[in-house]
Amino acid sequence: MRRVKLSNPFKTRIIDEKLIREHLALERTKLANERTLLAYIRASLYLLIGGLALLQIKEYPELHWLGYGAFSVSIIFLSVGIIRYIHLNRKLTRLLRPETTSENNES
């Protein structure tokens, strides 16, 4: 097993390469989770703006139901995005939490 030396301006330490890979993979997952949340928010805002635009058209009142539908889908998109973000964030937090073993409790 190869060991990798990481340089930190404050201190230098030697970390196992496997731990680095796991840490970087978790960081990529966190960033992907945030990026996905932003995509849900963006889609929700587009639907909200589209719904507002459809409600502003006075010549075609039969399209107002489509505007209200866009509002509803916008709220659903935002809710699903936030719920998925919170769910995955909690999963990652549980994964990153250090495990307590009986050896740590005894000493």
TrEMBL record:
The molecule here is called DUF202 domain-containing protein
Keyword Transmembrane (UniProt): yes
Q: Which keywords label this protein?
A: Membrane, Transmembrane, Transmembrane helix
Instruction: Identify the species of origin.
Output: Zunongwangia profunda (strain DSM 18752 / CCTCC AB 206139 / SM-A87) (Wangia profunda)
Among InterPro entries, the record links this protein to:
DUF202 (IPR003807)
State the membrane topology.
Answer: Multi-pass membrane protein
Cross-referenced Pfam families = DUF202 (PF02656)
Q: Which GO terms describe its cellular component?
A: endomembrane system
Q: Does the keyword Transmembrane helix apply?
A: yes
Residues covered by the DUF202 domain: 28-90
Segments traversing the membrane: 37-57, 63-86
Cell compartment(s), UniProt = Endomembrane system
